[in-house]
Amino acid sequence: MSLVANQVGALIQGVAVLDGISATFERNRIYGIIGPNGVGKSTLLHILSGSDAPSSGSVALDGMPLTDMTGKPLARKLAVLQQGGLPPVGFTVREVVAMGRFPHQNWLGGEAEDPESIIAGAIDAMGLTGLQSRKLHQLSGGERQRVALAKLMAQQPEILLLDEPTTYLDIGYQIELLDTVKAWQKRKELLVIAVLHDLNLASLYCDKLIALHKGRIAAEGAPEEVLQPAIIETLYGAKTTLVKHPATGVPQLILQPGTEV
Amino acid sequence: MLLLAVSMIASLSIGSAGLSFGDVWGILIHQLPGMPDPADKWTSGEIAIVTQVRLSRIWLDVMVGACLALAGAGFQGVLRNPLADPYTLGVASGSSVGAAFIILTGMQLALGLWTIPVVAFATGILTLLAVIWLSRTRGVMQIETIILSGVIIQSFLGAFVSLMVSMSQGVVNQILFWIMGSLAHRSWEHVYMMIPFLVLAFPVLLYYSQSLNLFTLGERHASHMGVKVERTKLIVMMVSTLLTAAAVSVSGVIGFVGLVVPHLIRLIVGPDYRLIIPLAGIGGGIFMLWADTLARTVLSPKELPLGVVTALIGAPFFAYLLHRRMKVEGGVKS
């Protein structure tokens, strides 16, 4: 199973945000999309999710154009964790997680197999068992993000797209969320594509990074190939020093102040 | 359901003709096949009041209330706005322009009873499109401004209807009642006219109720879950407008039912549209039944316009919702 972007371009109010993006995403891998603010990372993810159509080029899932696959069939294959998380609605945790089964339901709202164990399993995997009858507006932002992920688990996709999943979370929740995603990815051999702001987190969790700059792919490859201080300076205009993570050996970037201190 | 049945029975027995509970039921039971002719016990006038006037009116109350409450639930769900209803969106006024035009020109006499709801639906849809167009900024429909646009359009069209009425030479009293919303002077044929609208619209709304649940998480969320967002919005709004047009054709503009009832239901059963949709239908029937019973008995034998009664109850509730919404900052409370 693969997701292939072919010469994808996007115009927002007449301005080219993406221009000729081509990339192949394979199963059982985590891809990180990095780049400065406003470079079109989220736009690319919206196009890869099929919710927005590219203004040029195409995206294909297993050879089938995404524009030909909509609604429930697509949602059974591909799930999206949105930027900003779930709104504080009056539904309970369990009800929201159960909504993840929607793409598997027939027009009467029933399913071929009883989904109860899937829903309970997703709630359990996210450590939400004690909170399952609480309403969403009673939860903290971090807890709501766990509910969002549990809902995606209940959706049982093969492809998972994450749009800045760690924004607004403290470092404890950031690590917890990405650990959960990684464990789930390994268990089900998922294809995960995540837009990430934090380069060091991206390096810790991703198998491959794609750096966007001015609407094009500036660099792609393993974290040690992409996270080079020279590349990072072109992307962000910031000076960094590269070190090896003492425990895992992956590259980590340390920031340098712009002026001598 | 039980509450609805009890309300219907109670309302049937209350009225300005001074018939007792026993009289009403005696007449009704005598209508069943095999019972002796009621004519030797009651006058034909009394029989007519029960079977022709009151019974049909009670069914109309229930159906108009159900239509408006279902339409309100549909609009609130699809627009994710708790202040949306046929009245605040201007759809009811839009429908009434078409209906008033047909009534005042007497065209329904030439073209049949169905002319009014069909024309009312057409002008209702046009109004909805105008409201949506007004509330768009840079191609995106603004949830917050749609009510503002609706109220603007509603007052404009309301004035337009008044203008039409003041220029007409018809029976002013009866038309004024229609503008303020009333179910007086209606008969069984109006009941039969409403049945197809409810039978068509209710299953459609029920079918989309789970999609409306996903809408509460946001349109993009819903689309990622496999909901066909644009199609759902279009169909639910069309069906809600159809229900509004049916109600307006029969009763005139009755405000706030579509707003208040879905909220009361939501307070009781929570945010799940799979429960809200059917219960709003029933609740709307009960609400309207009691409002109309009040309207025809409080100043008996004079009759209050039904729209006045619902507005007296509904407007303070609307103000309360608006106030609470301003206090609860951010996010759609559902």
UniProtKB/TrEMBL annotation, chain A:
This is ABC transporter ATP-binding protein. InterPro entries: AAA+_ATPase, ABC_transporter-like_ATP-bd, ABC_transporter-like_CS, P-loop_NTPase. Pfam families: ABC_tran. The keyword Transport applies. Transmembrane segments: none annotated. SMART domains: AAA. It comes from the Bacteria. Keywords: ATP-binding, Nucleotide-binding, Translocase, Transport. PROSITE patterns: ABC_TRANSPORTER_1, ABC_TRANSPORTER_2. One of its GO terms (molecular function) is ATP hydrolysis activity.
